Amino acid sequence: SSTEHVKIVEVGPRDGLQNEKTIVPLSTKISLIERLSHTGLSVIEAGSFVAPKWVPQMADSSSILAHLAKHPPQPSQHISYPFLVPNIKGLDAALDPSHPASEIAIFASASEGFSQRNLNCSVDESLARFAPVVSRALDAGVKVRGYVSMVIACPYSGPTPPAAVVDITRKLLDMGCYEVSLGDTTGVGTPHTVDVLIKALVAAGIPVDKLACHFHDTYGQAIVNCMVGLANGVRVFDSSVAGLGGCPYAKGATGNVATEDLVYFLHSVGMNTGVDLERLSEVGAWISDSIGRKNNSKVGPALLAK
Ligand code: HMG
Ligand code: MG
């Protein structure tokens, strides 16, 4: 029906920028978050408190958190600005006493190969490391979102059995994550493999309203894969303005599905996102231009050319 709401989690300022080789100026990152804040989006992932030796591009996340606290964008709706946290050191930064983040995200992998490369530990070790992060965050009143990466296949470990995704998803929910985002990190999913995965999760008793789809568009399948998620009852989708992005530790990973394309698609099937597509398209054009990247959205440039 035309009143059904879909939540979009904009990950451009984090997933979209983390892989940029040239350091994007702090002022550009802040301007991106501010501009996105006036498009109607309700969740904007703003950075990550990871080791700067691993992801130098995210090294200024503390400044972003501080800026958002001092000069909060003033849109009409409430916006959540989550930050990625890999360990207690990252949580300490996120919980800066003078301006703690209100939401964090932890990120595990469904495959051992990617866990080693992205977190420098096994899947089980990562879960053991995340447990105290989540409990301390929840004690501090901070919401925690969970990610599972490589949900379809992994460039290092091969195809991912849906049972492995079920297992990690359940553990993240049991730990206290309010929602788990299913990462097709390298965009190798297809409508069939995504359908099999989501049906396996639902059949295993994972409530579909706890799931989000986080699809990268490496092979151009992200939108159809989102449609499969939608058909299976998922109502939360992650995307990146202008399709920016990629993961530095995932061989061959390109950007997320473009938020402009996702919003256009969702509106076309009668879903409400709260997002002003024209404003969003302007932000996509601006950030692509600012960092000298091709705009990977199809819809944004088409709409602005009209
Ligand atoms: P490690 O090297 O095993 O960690 O890395 P360590 O504890 O041995 O520390 C090494 C150094 O890092 C030390 O500094 C620590 O202090 C420092 P030194 O003594 O050498 O100067 N350090 C930190 N500094 C700042 N903040 C921290 C922190 N932790 C340690 N939090 C670690 C382990 C987890 C830290 C590392 O592997 C890491 O940072 N990984 C993050 C990688 C990453 O950010 N990947 C991209 C995000 S995930 C993603 O994109 C997928 C997703 O989009 C979903 C999808 O698409 O599937 C979410
Ligand atoms: Mg990602």
UniProtKB/TrEMBL annotation:
Question: So what family is this one in?
Answer: Belongs to the HMG-CoA lyase family.
UniProt record, GO biological process: ketone body biosynthetic process; L-leucine catabolic process
In the complete protein, the residues contained here run 63 to 368 of 384
Supply the name of the protein: hydroxymethylglutaryl-CoA lyase
Which E.C. number(s) belong to this protein?
A: 4.1.3.4
Q: What pathway, per the record?
A: Metabolic intermediate metabolism; (S)-3-hydroxy-3-methylglutaryl-CoA degradation; acetoacetate from (S)-3-hydroxy-3-methylglutaryl-CoA: step 1/1
Per UniProt, the keywords (alphabetical) are:
Lyase, Metal-binding
Q: Where is the Pyruvate carboxyltransferase domain?
A: 6-281
Reactions catalysed, as given in the entry:
(3S)-3-hydroxy-3-methylglutaryl-CoA = acetoacetate + acetyl-CoA
Query: GO terms for molecular function, please?
Result: hydroxymethylglutaryl-CoA lyase activity; metal ion binding
